[in-house]
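Translate sequence into structure tokens.
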Amino acid sequence: MNNLTAREKGFMYVVTLLIIVVLGYFFGIRTLNNKYDEYKVQLQTLEDRKAQLDQMRINNDSMAREIKYLKEQISDLELSFIDKLETECIEQYVLKTFETEGCPFLTGCTATDVGMSGVSYPDGSASPDGLVCMQVTVTYVSTDGYTVTQYNRNPDFTPGSENPAIENVKKVKTDMGKEPYNERKGYNEFISALKKINAENPKCIKVDSIDASTVNGYMELKAQISFYGTSLTNRISVDNSTAPYTSWSGSTNIDTAGGFIGFPYVCDKEESLWYGVENPQIQITANKPFASYYANYVFKKNYANSGNNIKKLIGFGKKNVEDAAAAAAANDASKNAGKDAKKKAA
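Result follows.
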């Protein structure tokens, strides 16, 4: 190296420098260029992914708003029908409406489930959801413009009445055909009640039919009223309705100590409001499944022999009569004892 001339040494330095530059390019700059290109590709990929995610977020927000809107629409549709059709609530609502409108003389009330057509999906399969309907049929009567009316033991002919029952009977005889009984009432009140029911919820309460006919001087008025609801397996809405036809709004403190279910020939429970009242639906001629044929025959014959007086036939009030007789006998005995004591003293 020391034998090299200055020119040769300069040449060697230049060559060495070139080698270093070439090596630096191959192992440094070129590698960095390759990494840069790779990072640019990754950046572009990430930017594309970000753009895709941003679009998905926008779509999700839009979809969430659409889902919320659809749920609100579904909820409104669900709430446009009655959630639960409960017979006792619907019947008490109907009867209370007629009573409030001045048409209280009910002779019949029935509730029937009406079969509705099923719902099918586009593929032909049956939906578990569907429309349900309950039809209430009521029958009322008008007054005849002459007979004194009675409703809820008014007037009261039972032994527990405030006024003596015999006095109430005499008053009824006197009031026949007089005010306020000389005007036939019931038809206008019947129509008024139906209009009120029909306007309560026009979407799901419909008065289907009205029938009016004359019977022995008064009118028999019949109506069919349909209540529509839904049976839903995956209900979205919550029905908090307190409408009188969806929740019980009748009396809840009824005294049943004297009996409430079933009615004998004559109510003999002194605790009952109906004590002493005869069963108006008794059929003396009808057979009784719990008795033999000859027992029915004897009962019918005894009823005729009693002058068709059911109380006399079954001995209703007999205990009271016996108690009164015993008291009278005791009183007579007491008087006789007093007389005997006076005689002895004399």
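Note: The mean pLDDT is 82.
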